[in-house]
Specification:
Elements (H helix, E strand, L loop, with lengths): L1 H8 L18 H8 L4 H18 L9 H7 L4 H7 L3 H20 L9 H16 L12 H16 L10 H20 L7 H17 L3
C-alpha cells in the first residue's frame, strides 16, 4: 500500500491535466454509480472536492497540494474532507474513476458482443489516457488502472452474462483478462513515441482481445 501511495504522489516534471468540462454538476449520475450513494449532500460535497482538486492540479503538482488547500478551495472544512476520503490519494483515485465512468456514459458505450462494442471501449480507454495526462511518462506513476479496469471489467461481465459460456470458463476471470488486456495495450500505445491514431489502435486492440473474449463462449 505504501508503494502505491508513494507512486501516486510522485507526479513531477509534467502536470496531471484534468478536463475542465467534465467536473460539473452533471457528474452526479456518475458519482452515484461509482459510490453507490444517493444522498445529494454527500454527492455535492464529493463533487466539490473533486472540482477543487482538479482546479489545484492546473496550478501545481499533486505532491505539493495539501488536504487543507483542497478543503479551502472547495469551501469545506478539513473534517468534511476526512468524512469522504482518507487521504488525497483516495480523492485523486475517485476523481479519475468518476471521469472515466462519465466518459463511458456520455458515449453510451456498453458491451453486448465483440462487434464494434469492444473497439468503442478500447477507444474510450485510449482517449481517457490521452485526456488524463499531458505527459506519457506520468502514466507509470499514476495508477490509473485502478480507475479504468474495474469499469471495463464490469462492462465485460455484463456482456458475458448474456451468453452461454463454454464448460470450465469462469466469467469473472474472462472479464478480468479482457479488461487488463485492453488497458495494458492502451497504456503501451500512449507511452509509445509517435503513436498511431487512437482509432487505429482501438481497432488493433479489438483484433487482439476479441478472440480472448470469444474463446470463452
Amino acid at each position: 500500500m505504501l508503494n502505491q501511495q508513494t507512486s501516486i504522489q510522485k507526479i513531477n516534471n509534467c502536470r496531471f491535466t484534468p478536463r475542465r468540462d467534465i467536473l460539473k454538476p452533471e457528474m452526479a449520475e456518475s458519482l452515484q454509480s461509482a459510490t453507490g450513494n444517493t444522498d445529494p449532500r454527500i454527492l455535492r460535497s464529493r463533487r466539490m472536492l473533486m472540482e477543487s482538486l482538479a482546479k489545484l492540479l492546473t496550478k501545481k503538482e499533486f505532491e505539493d497540494i495539501s488536504i487543507q488547500e483542497i478543503a479551502d478551495e472547495a469551501t469545506l472544512n478539513r473534517a468534511t474532507f476526512y468524512l469522504h476520503y482518507p487521504d488525497k490519494n483516495a480523492l485523486l483515485q475517485a476523481m479519475t474513476g468518476t471521469r472515466f465512468r462519465d466518459l463511458i456514459e456520455r458515449r453510451g458505450i456498453s458491451f453486448t458482443d465483440c462487434t464494434g462494442a469492444l473497439r468503442a471501449i478500447a477507444l474510450g480507454v485510449c482517449d481517457y489516457l490521452a485526456e488524463s495526462t499531458s505527459c506519457p511518462a506520468q502514466l507509470a506513476r499514476i495508477p490509473l488502472e485502478r480507475s479504468i479496469i474495474p469499469v471495463v471489467e464490469d462492462m465485460f461481465k455484463e456482456g458475458i452474462s448474456r451468453h452461454a459460456l463454454a464448460p470450465g470458463i469462469d466469467a469473472g476471470l474472462l472479464a478480468a483478462t479482457g479488461a487488463w488486456a485492453v488497458f495494458g495495450a492502451a497504456r503501451r500505445w500512449f507511452q509509445t513515441p509517435d503513436r498511431i491514431p487512437a482509432e487505429e489502435m482501438a481497432a488493433k486492440i479489438e483484433t487482439m482481445v476479441g478472440p480472448v473474449i470469444l474463446s470463452g463462449y
